[in-house]
Amino acid sequence: MVDKSLLEILLIDYRWIVVLFFLLPASFLYNLFYSVRSKIIFKLNSAPKNHDIKVADIQQQVKKWRESGTNAKMCTGRPGWQTMSFRKPMYKKSSYQINCNLVDVLDVDINRKIVRVEPLVSMGQLSETLAALGWTTPIVPELDDLTVGGLVMGTGVESSSHIYGLFQHICVSYELVLADGSIVQCSEKENSDLFYAVPWSYGTLGFLTSVEIKIIPATKYIRLHYEPVVGLQNIIDKFEKASRDTKKNQYVEGLLYTLNEAVIMTGEMVKDSEVEQNKLNDIGKWYKPWFFVHVQDILKRGKTTYEYVPLREYYHRHSRALFWEIQDIVPFGNNILFRYLLGWLLPVKVSLLKLTQTETVKKLYENNHIIQDLLVPTSTMKKCCEEFDRLVNVYPVWLCPFLLPNNPGMLKPSAGMQSDLYVDIGVYGVPKNRRFHPTETTRAIEDLVEKSKGFQMLYADTYRTEEEFRRMFDHGLYDKMRKKYQCEAAFPEVYGKVNKNVRD
After folding, report:
1. Architecture of domain 44-217
2. 221-318: CATH architecture
3. pTM of the predicted model, to two decimals?
4. Conformation bin of residue 165: beta by default, left when phi > 0, alpha when psi is -120 to 50
């Protein structure tokens, strides 16, 4: 047996010690620094001027790449460990890296109802900036560290998506630096083909430098209804009914705790005067139970109830526990003593978890863990839930409805689809099925999603062949834009950035 060093023992056998005494304090200080920095920069209004300087620098870097002979394809210089995906993108090692320090909210235009941001602005940063002004984006993906660029180039979905669609559908325009170093603006009316091709393109059409996003007025609180439901068909019926009632329900979400037990949550913004103080619950406070545990307690009681929740705390309700992933990293994290004494340090940053991940931990994680979001029509929801239960048996399962408009681009309903309502089935955790195999099981799930005329989110591992990948995602407009903007020599294709081989 090979002796392990003290550092290896800490990082593998006692990883919770590293998380508790290093990663949690580091995460807290990192978040504090960037929160203060963001407020100062926004208040001084220096970001718009600096933005032009930063974009000019990206243009110069692209020019140098062209002068170097264009032998290696370009990508952003952002280290792989800083991304929210649990995987490290190894393609960066062989790529020509362009530094893009684009981290600021640029402007909030109340008259146009638009916020303009740089792509590395996080959801926590954006929601905090807008909340202070009484506004919000129609869709706020729940994890604090998700970035605008990742949600545009990848995807974003939240409990208001049954009304507004995916994150890309609330975006008004994009600014990009192209392969020839030029800047282009695109929207529904200007360079519309490029505008529709950018989402899901994973940085393979150009460097995203700013995004304009719709904003809507926000109240301070929402009324959140919890309905425990038993029986899979009953769960699906109530979930779909709530999702289609867009006049009543501004927010819809389901948490599936077993194949036949769930809580369906619906919510709507309310005025301060409507809030019943005895029903107010600050779910985001450090000493509160993790949200999924709070909901599970309601399921155990078996009674429909409601409460009033601060809007921003609702938006980020899954951040502290990373949905429920943190329970496998800090098993005692929901203990009342831990919450009161150290809960204010949460959430731990995924980027720091990845930075301290040894190869042994990485292999253990890949072989004994699944993280996938599958986007399927609600008409196939029952079959998919049953198959996920059989293949992985991971709970809770996240259920989030979304509208999928028939817009041009890589993601749109299949021809002949009867329903435009889809559901994101989020499966995160350690499979209880002893037959789980990372490759074979994921392949089986991908096959199920394809047969269901659905889509796989690409932040996680995909085992599709390139032919299978192109069957799942419409490349017609994307290929046209790749050719028009001379991307073939400049950027890899999407498949070349997301397939499993470049994440090992």
Report:
1. 2-Layer Sandwich (3.30)
2. 2-Layer Sandwich (3.30)
3. 0.89
4. left
